[in-house]
């Protein structure tokens, strides 16, 4: 039996696209079609006539090159795997870069701005509901009854701790607070799809990706050959993509044993 | 101190003899040439800048109409300061609902020059509001009485109000230190104040925010005030003096909001109260413009709130300015202050302006 999978993702999809080229010979019965793009492409899709379609020409162009010639996502895949698209633990922790809840403040200083719990809740709720991940899970359910799987954005690389611009990652109270928020977001999303956790072998200290996986990460651009900045600690390389994709394929296989 | 450099008395002597002081005046000074044949779109030369604002770090504050000015300045390459930004990754209405991403600090709408003056005095350390005046409470939630709308659900404790206030005031202080241009829109003359301290509130105590009454009106503690021309003028002059104590180079650009009063506390018709209020503000703005070389006035009020340039430019409620009209007003503004990024003029969408004063209309039901 063959398995026809649609992958939809943002910049993090680059690692998976590269990885698939390297491992697809191991999966002769699996066919994957990638769709996605950067700079908000995945938030510029809508459902029309039973398919997920682009809002504008820029998005259409992005779907065309990532898929190899398709500009609409139809419902006739066996499974949908969504990748990244905004639900990022790093971006949640980043909210504490310059802001703190009152009980996190010992002394007022200009670099840290107090915010209310109400505002933070409203902000994280918006962060969740406006994410490309949540929107596109809804879109997929609107066009098909096929199962939906989701791989969240990778955890930030442990190398970020050595970079002064990521100093907020040393704020443990903030990390802990946002881990609870993040986990509750994933729990909510689990009501609508299967969430594939980041493979344990890529994780260190429970909240970071091992440093080696962000080395050589490439941008989701034609050619897949332009590297991210060396100080980019959120995008991972093809080796990471391979581990995650093999893991995800195993989960999909398990969910669809007849395929 | 008044600066009368820019005051030119009517009939000042010219080097060339002429039969009448009205000879050789530009077309824009003649009704028959400048207004009679013109409409809202075609009217020309209604604003001539007093000074360039290019390269000036800009602070914005005022009534809700000031938000249009702030958004459009940003969009056209001007540096509009924001010293009290919201969370990264969260923009739009979530931020605005909590007072972020609206002005250069999170003070909410500042409708009166007295509130502006008192905020500057607080930032300069010249006054410190008493906690009894500052904190409004209801059902175990607490609000900063000087900007209650920025926390629509209130805060968990009076201490949190004071913590946020201290942080806010320190950011306003930095704003006054950094800004080279302060854009302010005069909004109202009517206000409510503490009888004990004279502290002017942002809105009447007991006004609902998101359906929840905030604060409680107490006649023995709260007094109504309707500022006069001299009050408005003096308050702005005092504000200017404080601003210059931080930053002697600061310039000011003032406008008068065209938005009518939602309700008046004066025992008179709201239309009469509106015209009284706007006339006072317009007169004070004129005096400031005429007295100080560093105060410019942009006539958005004239464009939107007089009947001479065609049909009214308001929505059905006759208060909210039509988005297209705002865009047109901003075109007049940018005809004198061109976009700085070398691109064509862009005008912001208008749907997300926050106007707490409109909350008062709830009492009309």
TrEMBL record, chain B:
Top-rank taxon, per record: Bacteria
Pfam families named among the record's database cross-references: GSCFA
Domain GSCFA: 59-333
UniProt-listed InterPro entries: GSCFA
Organism of derivation: Mycoplana azooxidifex
Protein known as: GSCFA domain-containing protein
Annotated region (Disordered), positions in chain: 1-21
